[in-house]
Each structure stands twice: as C-alpha cells, then as structure tokens.
C-alpha cells in the first residue's frame, strides 16, 4: 500500500503530494551533503527554508481538507432538501444561484493559491541555490521541474508568469551567489568579454536556460490545454449519455402509461357512443345531451394526449416522418393549446410565404415541442397577456420565436432551463420535463433551442430547424 494515495494529475491534491516529496527530498539531500561530503554548507539557513516550505504545505493541506468538507456538505444540502424531501433541481432557483457562485469560487481559488505556492517554491529554490553555489549547482535544473508542473496545473498566462519568474531567479544566480568549494566554477583568468558581470559562459548558460524554459512552457501548456479540451469533450459525452438514459426511462414510462390507458378509454368511448344511440329517440333533458357531448370531447382530448405521449416515447407511428408545410405544422401545434385566443401569430413583412415552406419531419413530435414552448409562455404571462409566435425562413433554416410577457429568468435559471425535473413553476403546475423533451426533439432533428431573457421583461425562446434539401 502506498504511503500517499495517488491523486489525479494536475489536481490540488497532486500538488500537495509533490510538495511533500520535495520537502522529503530536500531534507535527504541536506543530510547527505552534511554527513557524506566535506562540503561546508549553511545548514541552518537551508533548514529554515525547508521548514518554511513544510509550514506552507501543511497550511495548504489543511485548506484542502476544509474545502473538501465544505464541498461534501454543499453537495449533501443540494442533493436533498430536508424540509420537502425533494431534489434541489425541483426547488427554488435561489439555491441554484448560490451553488453556481460557490462553484465559480471553488474553480478559481485553488488555481490562484497553487500559483502563489509555486511562485514561493521558485523563490525558495532560488534562495537555496544562492546559498549553495548558484547556477553552478546541479540542482538548478529543478527550475524546469517547477515550470513543467506549472504547465500541468496552471493556465497558460500563469504558467508564463511562473516561467518569467524562474528566468529572473536564474539571472540573479548568474550575477551573484555564495561560492561553494567543489561546486562553483572559477575562471582561470579574468575574461576579456563581459556583459555587465556575465562572461561568455554565463551568457551561454542564460541563453540555453531561457530557450529550454520557453520551449518547455510552450509544449507543456499546449498539451495540457489539449488534454483539458479532451476531458471537457468526454464529460460532455458522458452528460449526453446520461441525458439519453434519463430520456429512455421517461419514454418507457410514457409508453407504458399510454398503452395501459388506451384500453379503458376505448371501452368508455364505445359505451358513450352506445349510450348516445340508445337515448337518441328517448325524451330526456337537454343537459344529458350536453354531458354526452362533453364526454365525447374529453375522450377526443385524451386520445390526442395519448398520441403525444407515444410521440414523446419514440413510438414509430407517432413519430412517423411526413411531408408538411410550416403553416400546417403551426396549425397542428395550435390544436392542443388550452388558451388559443392568447396566442398571437406574427408574420414578418420580409417573408410572407413562410406558410408554404415545405418541411420533412415528425410533425406530431415537433408540434408537441412547439406546444410546450407556447404553454410555458402562457404560464409565465398574466392571464390578460398574450404570447407572440413569430416565424421566418432564414436561408436554409426555419426560425420560430415564442415571446412571452412574464418576469424573465436569471442567468442561473437560464443555464439550467431544459434540465430534467428542473422547474420554477408552483407545485402541481409542472415537473420540469416539457423543456427537456422539447430540446431533445429539436436537437435530434439537427436544430437548436436558445433562450434569451431579461428579468422583468419576459423571455424569448428561439427554435431553428434545418430545411429539407431539394
């Protein structure tokens, strides 16, 4: 079993472990030089520098452990609301805003702290080398180690700052250092060629150091950036896969519910029609005919809802692709709107022929997606206010905008709009699946869904769908 558990490359814990190994290595080197070589070194001053590094490393480890405890407590609180027993994704967006600010703080603070520690390590290394022969000390090569570690952990600007600091330290060692017998190289005679106090050998060492440090910093930062981008792509793929798995579970549930409800609704429909036929020639109150008509209308609505559930669940019949027009698509979407009088269709003066634009898509699924956006706009607006729907054919894509007159959304809520089970509606008015399914339908067609919102001024949902190629 290792003395120290392995840590991810480039993490804060990884830096903590590297500094621990460096402290142990420095103590062993000082002890070796003191006991096994006749070299006279300022042991006291060197031990003070090592102790200083150990103190800063201990403080860094304490800070990391405290930050880890706070993170675990924050995750526990955000995972479950003890008052309601609900996931934080279904609670108020205020908690999500606080979590976003905390996440931003946690992502920036360790990076800055790591830079400060590594800058202190460079200064400490320079001081140790100054006391032990300067640039002639073989351990001056550890400047490159610090630059390489900085390239892995830090951002490119911070890495280049660290590299510049290492170059300044090396220049200082070339100009002045405490000579040590057996390490310091003294010229046989006074050189004729000098730049300031640097002879030809010192200038060559400086040029080689600057060149190596620059090349090392460039390649390490470039490779680190590529690795970070690859890691982001991997996380994005994992997130998309998780969304697909959640969608699969939801669609399975929807398909099962649609299948189970179809049979009793069919039986009710048959019984209602038989009852209507038997009572057709029998004197009865007018309210009976009205009730039978109401039942028939509600059964028709139930059949439409089941059809939409099958479309959301991936039913091949409900998601059958067919040729239609943009105007027919909007008409289909408006058929199931609960307050159609509050929906205003705006036609652009630049393009009045959008209604005849041919489309090739699963009409019912896309209509349901548009219907979800309109319903969200109606829910966000007052009962006396309308929702504007504007359509436009822009090049090789159709653009649809749904503009409500609600209170708008904050940036934190916008970032989570479309996440499953995230909703800002009152309990009983939604469970946060409409936008998730809407985004899934539009994305699978190669389109995009974007929200623009200003608090107090409403929200605009923009859907872009590619047009069929002729």
Number of strands: 9
Q: What are the secondary-structure elements, in order, as H or E? A: HHHHHEEHHEHEEHEEHHEE
**Gyration radius, rounded:** 35 Å
The strand line-up of the biggest sheet is 4-6-7-9-8
Percent range of helical residues: 55-70%
Low-confidence stretches: 1-6, 78-106
What percent strand?
Answer: 5-15%
What is the number of helical segments per DSSP (H or I, 4+ residues)?
11
Mean pLDDT: 78
Q: Tell the overall outline.
A: elongated
Distance between the termini: 66 Å
Quickly give the structural class: alpha+beta
Structural domain count: 3
What's the story with the biggest beta sheet?
5 strands, mixed
Pfam family, one: HATPase_c
Main location: membrane
Keywords: ATP-binding, Kinase, Membrane, Nucleotide-binding, Phosphoprotein, Transferase, Transmembrane, Transmembrane helix
Organism: Rhodopirellula baltica WH47
Task: Describe what you observe in this structure.
The protein has helices at 12-36, 43-79, 93-131, 142-153, 156-175, 200-278, 286-312, 326-335, 363-380, 411-416, 434-444, and strands at residues 194-195, 198-199, 321-325, 343-347, 358-362, 387-394, 397-403, 448-454, 458-466. The protein is of the alpha+beta class. The protein folds into 3 domains: 12-186, no CATH class; 247-312; 321-466, Heat Shock Protein 90, CATH 3.30.565.10. Strands 4-6-7-9-8 form a 5-stranded mixed β-sheet. Strand 6 and strand 7 form a beta hairpin. The longest helix is centred in the middle third of the chain and has 79 residues, at 200-278.
